[in-house]
Design brief:
The chain has 2 domains: 74 residues, no CATH class; 89 residues, GMP Synthetase, Chain A, domain 3. The longest helix is centred in the first third of the chain and has 14 residues. Strands 1, 2, 3, 4 and 5 form a 5-stranded mixed sheet that branches. α1 crosses α4. The chain is of the alpha+beta class and 187 residues long. The protein is globular. The protein is 47% helix and 13% strand. The N and C termini lie far apart (47 Å). It comes from Pseudonocardia tropica. This is PucR family transcriptional regulator.
Length: 187
């Protein structure tokens, strides 16, 4: 199997798991995905979902099966993952930017259309990148930058278009806009 075959499915699944999956693992899995290590991702994801009793929708289960691959040893664990629906999203508020958030702008400026900052009701800061061209690479790059700035658990959501989940919709609606690329006038 092509090493990068599961990357788009992996990115979409990790987006869909935001807010349900342990943040401490989510950013690491995104880093592995950016490196093209879908084998590690496919081995850890099903076990973590089972350990934390996180249920998946039918679509999410199909994404997980694609990430794991047909011949992986953890393939049998995909069917053991509980069925479920995403919980209601947390309450978000607009975030106050810090040096790390402003530094992220240097990374996203040429790769996306907007940078937003929201804060979850548990105090976790979430950077949202809109219309990312290479979302799996951009999410990992921004997370690494946040780690350099002292954020132990970076939370970066790189979206390719519309918000894919209620979690992202709620975050984008409440978020403070740090930067936005103005549309280029036509005509």
């Amino acid at each position: 199997m092509d090493r990068l075959a599961g990357v788009p499915a992996g990115h979409e699944l990790l987006l869909r798991l935001a807010g349900r999956f342990p943040d401490e693992l989510l950013w690491r899995l995104r880093d592995w995905l950016a490196a093209g290590d879908t084998a590690a991702l496919g081995a850890v994801l099903p076990r973590t979902l089972l350990r934390h009793r996180i249920g998946l929708t039918g679509h999410e289960r199909a994404l997980l099966a694609e990430v794991v691959g047909p011949d992986a040893p953890s393939r049998r664990l995909v069917e053991a993952v509980l069925p479920g629906t995403p919980p209601a999203p947390p309450v978000f508020t607009a975030g106050e930017p810090d040096l790390a958030a402003w530094s992220a702008l240097s990374v996203v400026r040429d790769e996306a259309s907007a940078l937003l900052l929201a804060v979850r009701d548990d105090g976790a800061r979430v950077l949202l990148v809109r219309d990312a061209e290479r979302p799996h690479l951009l999410a990992a790059a921004v997370a690494r930058l946040l780690r350099v700035h002292g954020h132990r658990v970076p939370r970066v959501e790189a979206l390719t278009g519309d918000a894919p989940t209620e979690y992202h919709e709620a975050a984008c609606t409440a978020a403070a806009s740090l930067w936005s690329r103005e549309p280029v006038p036509t005509g």
